[in-house]
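I'll show a sample.
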Amino acid sequence: MTLGDPSLQLLFWLPAQGRHTDAAGTSAVLPEEGAPRKAVEVESAGERVGAIVYDAVVLPDPALVRAAGRVVALAMERERLTAELLAGRAALRESRARIVESGDLERRRLAHDLHDGLQAHLVVLALRAGQLAVRAAPPLAEQAEAVRADAETAITELRGLVHGILPALLAQRGLFAAVQELVDRIPLPSTLSLPADDTALPAAVETAAYFSVAEAVANAVKHAGAQKLWVTLTHDSRRLGIEVRDDGVGGAHLDRGSGLRGIADRVEALGGRLSLASPPGQGTRLCVELPCES
């Protein structure tokens, strides 16, 4: 459409949802009364199909815009179907993202409760049992020592459980510190590259990123027969990039096992992308991109 207004915008009316969207399916609102930008409704066969938003300074005569609207009404009706489909996809992505974020919030709450609640009680129990073992006479001393040992075992197992739910370092110091600690524990020669900018990221992004790295590292150590591992994280104002690469046997596939598939689902739910290249005999390269705009 050429009306001499480069800022002109077509919006599409979605009757089932009672809102306008742009061509990408993103919700849009018509200009308010008195605003410098104006809107003209477009109809096809007596039904509203959308609106044309324009600059009233460039196009002071709304009749010209209405005439253009009558010309493009049929084309807008076709485009509206596409916008409606895209809006449905966007709503689905938003719903999936909310589910992931809600799950991560519950994950953090559970890890906190286990660490500060049950684990603290077990530590106190172990201390009291140890004191009793020192002061009491047999056979009570032996029984108290057994309780202390059992409590210590339970504490160790609980720490492993809490770490699997959400590493304490991730919650306390963020993604980059947690990845550094993870790579330091890898029993392979490893190269880690982290961004100089350690700006805090959204919690859901940090969780998805950490478990993406952890899954790729676990696969390299357990299944790939790798001799070396490279982990690279990059970050700018809009995206977080992750690359985990090994020199192992390759042959990894997203559809084999639930680990990588679960990571892919989590990444996609947050609007990100995951790619896996793993030709047989040539190592594996996992790449993840996550949007991280605040």
Notes: The longest helix spans residues 62-135.
